[in-house]
Amino acid sequence: MKALEVVLRRLKPFLNRTAELATLQKACGMYGAATSNKVQPSFGLLFDIDGVLVRGKAPIPAAKKAFQKLLDSRGHFLVPVVFVTNAGNCLRQTKADQLSHILGVPICPDQVMLSHSPLRMFRKYHDKCVLVSGQGPVLDIANNLGFQKVVTIDMLREHFPMLDMVDHNRRPKRPSSPTVKLPNVEALILFGEPVRWETNLQLIIDVLLTNGSVGNAHDTRHHAHLPLFACNMDLMWMAEAQSPRFGHGMFLVCLENIYRKITGQELKYEALMGKPSELTYHYAEYLIREQAAERGWTTPIRTLYAIGDNLMTDIYGANLYNRYLEERSWPRKTAVQVMQANVGGIVGRVSSEALPQDQDLEMVWERELAPPSATSCKSVLVCTGVYNPHAGDQANASHSTAEIVFHGHRDFQLDPALVEPGHMVQDVQDAVELIFQQENLVPTREP
């Protein structure tokens, strides 16, 4: 291996492009050799995007400076980095390309985790007919996640045009007779907030109250409805406007209240994903471990740092996952028991009714992700997004419980300890500098 390193160093002046050198390194089994003789990182970084790295499509000035510190002289990340966003209206490749352009550093799709990414694990639904709601290329997104039979809201309204009646301008002049019959819907996936809320709310309710047979009349009698998955629970998010905008969590509030108003029953979720769900952080840690392994790093990842701007999602989720890791380390307590305890405590992240037997559950998680190697997840709050320390934010964890307006999802409990950030800094550049100090990491650049 040392002989190969010597050869590569001698060849380097003749390789005009960094990509050629990287390809040769990987072919020689030397991917990540830049850190082979240095202390290997035992921590990984989880970055939120909106409000931390960008505002709308514009980069936050501190972001580029922060990422200059995270790269060595050859453009390799010094530590494993995953971008964890609750956005879900695009493919990972698209988001990676956007981030690469904005930050000026090479980001690969395996470093991007969208709110819907954990759906890859729900293989038992991949061959079922699923209705998807959201915007962007929802059909491509669902296919990319492994779902083989997908029906979109637009496909549903085209086959049943008399169901979408709110907008008078879109009402059909005469009933149509579709030539292709849609299969019955067997599960629903809500990727993110749609463009036309009234259309999506109406047709989702139609599917739930007809058990997937949309052409039939509603049945509002009490019975279990079809499996429902929701990605991205953000009540609000920060764009270019001076105040936060409605997010998918607000759409879920509408849907839940409509369902309860019509049926008298609570809407139940097979799984809720996206921050602050532990499922999301567990999957993000898996991506961190995979990235470290690909780089040839053998030191276990023991600490995760989650950097975000939203107390109710980024901070709450990181602290919740930290609690999960702490509980998991207790003697004689298996991961299955911890997950079941958490499900019972905060109903809805993974439906307790849908949990398989202990052995089956353990096999699923072991097969898909393997147990976590991290022992802690530390939250770092930045003040460039949703959180504004000068705005009298009632969600500030320093306030009493009675004063906190909980913006989290209905199925998550308010615990003031979970919205208390481990660290609070001005921006992401300060966050990276703080973490490097915490980990005694001094970046060194090779000539």
TrEMBL record:
Protein name: Haloacid dehalogenase-like hydrolase domain-containing 5
NCBIfam families hit by this protein: CECR5, HAD-SF-IIA
SUPFAM superfamilies in UniProt: HAD-like
Keyword annotations of the record: Signal
Keyword Ribonucleoprotein annotated: no
Family: Belongs to the HAD-like hydrolase superfamily.
Domain of life, source organism: Eukaryota
CDD domains: HAD_like (cd07511)
Signal peptide annotation: none
